[in-house]
Amino acid sequence: MKLNSQILVSQTSRLKTSWMGIVLLMLALPIPALAALGGDVTSVQKDQAQMKGAVKTTETPAYTTHVITAPGKIVVKEYVSLTGKVFAITWQGEVIPSMQQLLGTYFDQFAQAAKAQRESHPGHRPVSIQQADFVFQNGGHMRSYVGRAYVPAMVPQGVNVDALQ
Amino acid sequence: MRSFLVLILVGTLGFLVGCGNNGTPSGVAISVTLTPSSASLTASQSVNITASVANDSSGKGVSWALTGVGALSNQTTTGATYTAPATVTTTSVATVVATSIASPTSSGSAAITVSPAGTTTNVVPISVNGGPLLTANPPVIYTNAAFVSVNLCAPSGACQTIPDILVDTGSFGLRVLGSELNSTLAAALTPLNDGNGNTVYDCVQFVDNSFLWGAVAPATIVLGGETATSTSIQIIANPSFSIPGGCTGTNEDTQALLGANGILGVGPEPFDCGTACDPGAGGTAPTVYYLCSSGGSCSTTFVSCGALCNDSIPNQQVTNPVFNFPTDNNGVILTLPQVNDVASTVSGTLTFGIGTESNNTLPTTATLFTLTTGDNFTTNYGGQALTGSFIDSGSNGLFFPQLGGSPVICTDNADWYCPATTTQLTATNVDPNNGTTSNTVTFDVDNFDTVTNANPSDAAFSNLAGPMGVGPCSGSNTGACAFDWGLPFFYGRSVFTAIDGTTTTYGNGPFWAY
Predict the structure, then answer these.
(1) Side-by-side strand order, sheet with B31-35
(2) Closest partner CB to B479 (pick from A120, A123, A138)
(3) CA atoms of B121 and B489, how far apart (whole Å)
(4) For the residues B92-118, what does the mean pLDDT come to?
(5) Mutate to test the interface with B, among A68, A96, A138, A142 (most CBs of B within 10 A)
(6) Residue B118: strand, helix, or coil
(7) Strand partners, B165
(8) B460 phi, psi to nearest 5 deg
(9) Interface confidence: ipTM more than 0.85
(10) N or C: which end of chain B has fewer CB within 10 A?
């Protein structure tokens, strides 16, 4: 069977003139191979490519939302602060998206906490992680998963992370 | 002479060691396993049960006891015959227990569903009994999990009864550890392939960074008197090649890691992926089904789900076996007895079909909840509407958001609640489509650490709960917008699960009713 790997991009993010300098500085910095949470805005495109999805971007005064739709009816929303950091990610879908891709450098914290949970008692249960620098939850059932992750220190002033749509 | 004395001494010491530890050397416990461990009979039918006793150095075997209807005969230290009564007016579960004579604290049991004569045997027994790891070394107890035996056959006819399969209303399809198949069945099950030497594999990712990976093969599945033919199952196994991304974390391909011999997904869907994995979806296939060459090069692929997916190619996705029964195929009823806080084991039934036989009608007192496209309903809890709620026998507790720091989360186990004292809470389930049909549930939450430490050998706990995220539910895009009614919800209830794409006399699936 042929694998259809067409990638669709409907809209690219617009840069605010006043932040151009900071964005150019960001682009000059080394970009991690894996991306998203805690990463910079270019990591969003890496996630989109890995997930073979389409991305649509919306701007609000406090942050920019990149919505990636991917096979398996997956919708991932990556919230980028005005300083260009992905401070929160939410997801829902029939299939769980790649946590390795989405959590970037925070994947190890997730993997360790999940492993401890699994090894303490048998059985599959929702995962809920509350660490000072990493908050994560994921739950649901086959064909209906919902979760989110965010870095408290990166959430912009005045943004209620619990209200992110 | 001297050597003779030595022999006597050794023999005596052996005897003393034996006595001191109930007939076995210390550290090697006697365990009793019955075959079959479950059966479904109608009136007057019989089944021969054999007991195998591990580490029974004295060879004393077992003695037998029966609770429930019927009678035992032909009892020996290795076997017995169970016969159902001649007159059976209502379905019940009888339990046959074999106790080691050398070690009276070691026993094994078999659960037998007895149904009235002339009925299709649409009921199988289920047990919340701590699971197969109880006989592991060291033993591990899998609490709040209901296990069933499945008779799995290759299309060619070779069959094997596989016990200790988790009953899961939160997933769809039968998944069995390849390591548990005998060589005949393993050789007879032929995985799907594309005709070019590429095999179809299935990836099931769980939220806790674990997964199931394995080939998809058509099989015949027999549960009680119900048979599903040409039904794709997943054979869980670690392949000789690298598993592609889409399945990350821990591969639960052994009994030790999975805690069971497999999972019987009997939730409200016929297929484990549905239209998203059907070729009609177009674009790129999701990370569920793969075509892998014999050299281990895998790529995602679509697999048809047949007519229900508007596909002329017959369904080959991993399928809820109930959906493929010739009758009694529109859902299941999971029934478990009341548990007042803790019970060592409880037995119940898994009944096939809703409104198709005299034993699967929906009571007029029941509440029926139609579901969203994601198979969820709404639970009003803590002043919020949790719109992603569901009933899941495969979750071994109740899981709901922590609000305002309550209930307190255990410091040692962040996936469970540890309130200082047992706390009573209420939540109201609401039909998401009509917004009015509702039912209020009152439940208790124990301190997980206290109650499990105090009852380390018990399998059923009615008051175990844990966090489904922390903080309020806003919109639909956080993990804290769901109430997961896990196995404790089933204690003292009959929960009806109707399958999407089927009809019942009470309305079309999918729905939950209790």
Answers:
(1) B31-35, B46-54, B79-83, B71-73
(2) A138
(3) 26
(4) 86
(5) A142
(6) coil
(7) B148, B262
(8) -115, 125
(9) no
(10) N
